[in-house]
Amino acid sequence: MNAQTLISRYGELKERVAQACIEVGRMPDDVRIIVVTKTHPVETVQSVIDAGIKDIGENRVQEIEAKAPLLRGEFEMHLIGHLQTNKVNKVVSLIQWIQSVDSIRLVEKIENASAGLDRKIKALVQVNTSNEATKSGCSEHECLAIAERVAQSRSLQFRGLMTIGPLDASEADTRKAFSALRILSEQCVSLAPASGIELSMGMSSDFEWAISEGATMIRVGSLLLGQRDMAG
Length: 232
Known about the structure:
Blueprint: H1 3-23, E1 32-36, H2 42-50, E2 55-58, H3 61-67, E3 76-79, H4 88-91, E4 97-101, H5 104-113, E5 121-126, H6 143-151, E6 156-162, H7 171-185, E7 198-200, H8 207-212, E8 217-220, H9 222-225
């Protein structure tokens, strides 16, 4: 993809974000766009950064290991996929955000692995608000305890919650999953920094619904970069 196409698509996305915000009385700057670069080559990720986009999302530790050391410029790397405890050591020095903290055991593993870091990793607790058996994330009743543990961590800074909308669901069911995260966040407000609690929800197919339900971060890949090679 050439730079002009990327910039044009990003501009169109920002217009859609702005319109979704205006419709519910929010400011467009309230929503941060995380560009998901899963399976795209490092050259594509660099072109995203060169276009002035600072938030990069990757699903897999292996891809972060391969790409992050080669990237140049100002950006923040978000791990948005499930983090296995046996891969924590490989990734903590390469990321600024973990959006998928889903257990106290994982928090402890991250603490052990990042003892030498001179900064805290910003963390979101991932909640399975649609209760799908195939999906990662803690249950709703586990959320507060995990959030409290993150807030007490010497290695993590609690910044909010994340969820993934149900696959191929109706608008009503998708909104219900997003609304559940917003309601849960009300229990966690006191744990977040003064800047407020982040709600990461919504992807290419449902981000407008997520914004209307309170999303402050959306995770968008295919709308900007095209369909990914899922075999990659």
